[in-house]
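Human: If only I could read C-alpha cells as easily as an amino acid sequence. Take your time, and here it is.
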Amino acid sequence: MLYQLYEFQRQAMAPMRAMADHGQYIFRSPFNPAAYTPGGRVLAAALDVFEHSTRPYGKPTFGFTSTLIKGKEVAVTEEVVARAPFGQLKHFKRDTNRDDPKILVVAPMSGHYATLLRGTVEALLPDHEVYITDWRDAKLVPISDGDFDLDVFIDYLVDYFGLLGPDTHVMAVCQPSVPVFAALALMEENDAPNRPASITMMGGPIDTRVNPTEVNRMATARPLAWFRQNVIGTVPPPNDGMFRKVYPGFMQLAGFMSMNLGNHMVRHHDMFRHLVEGDGESAESSRAFYEEYRAVMDLTAEFYLQTVETVFQRHLLPKGEMMHREQLVNPAAISKTPMFTIEGERDDISGVGQTKAAHDLTPNLPDDKREHYEQPGVGHYGIFNGRRWRDQIAPQVRDFVLKHRQ
C-alpha cells in the first residue's frame, strides 16, 4: 500500500499544484495591479514555492554541449556505448584529437540519477575522456528483465571494464565504492586482463564500523526484516515495472530531507524571500538545486536490502566475508592497481575513515601505488560537487590518474 498511497497523494495534489502555478503568473502579470503591491509579491512567491516543492520531477539531462580545454571551447556530444536493462554506459565525446586518459565515473545507485554528478563530470571533461554509469529507474524496468542486486552490479562493472579496456581509470562516488572495490579484488584474484588502470573512491562506505554516522545508525537500529516490511513497496500500474518490488525514491528523498530538515526549511524560506525581493538569480540557484535533488529513482528491493545487510549491518567486505555469487571477495588480492581514497572532513553520510579503511584491507598493495586525501571543510556532496571539488579535489584526481597512466 505504500506506493499506492504515495500515488494517491500525488494525484490529489495535482489540482492544487495547477492552481498555484496559474496563480503565481496571475499575480506577476504586468496587467494585474496587485503585482505591484507587497501583498501581491508575497502571494506570488508563496504560490511559486508551493508549486515548486510539490512538483514531481523526472530524470534530468546532463546538457553538456561543450567544454573548455586550455581556453578553447570544444564541442561535447553525449553517446551511449552500452545498454543493459538497469542502466547504460554513457560517453561524453569531445571533438578533439587529444590523447587524454579515459575515466569511468561510477555513479551511486542510491535514489538519485547519475545527473547528480553533473558538476563532477564537468570538472573532469577538460582533462579526460569521461564515461559514466547512467542507472535506470527500477519502476521503468519490466519485471521480465529479471532482478538487480549487488552481484549484478558487480557483473555490470566487470563488463564495462572489459568494454573500455585496461587503460581505463575508475572513479567511484559514494555507494558504488563497495561494488567497485569488490570487482577490482575479484579481477586481481582471477588475474583478469581488463582490470582498471587505477581506482579512485570518494566518500564510500567501505567500512561503516569506522566513525559511524546517523545514516549508519539508522541502518543498524532495526533488523533487516523491518526494512523489508516497512520501506519496500510494489510498483503500481501503469508503470513499465509494475509489480516489481522496490525501495521507492520518495522514501530515500524523505530520509535525506529529514536528516537536515532545518537547513532545507531555511533554504526554502530564503528562496521565498528572494522571490518577494525580486532577486531572481538567487531564487533560481535554489530552484535548480532542488529540481536536481528531488529528481529521484526507485531501487530494486533486492539491491537495497542486500546493500543494507552487506554494507551496514554485517560489514561483510571489511570482515573478509563478502561473496560474489560463489566466490569470496578477498581485498588482500589487490596488489597491482593504484588506489586513491578521498574523504570530506564534515561528511555526515560516509564518516571520515570509512573510505580510508580500504588501505588497511589491501596490505599487499605497494605504498607508491596508494594515496589518501581528506578535504577540509566539506560535507558529503562537497567532495564531488562545488568549488572545493573543482579547485582542490579534481586537480588531485587528474594528477593521480596521469601519474599512473599506462
Remarks:
- The mean pLDDT is 90.
- The first strand starts at residue 66 and ends at 69.
- The first helix runs from residue 2 to 26.
- The radius of gyration is 22 Å.
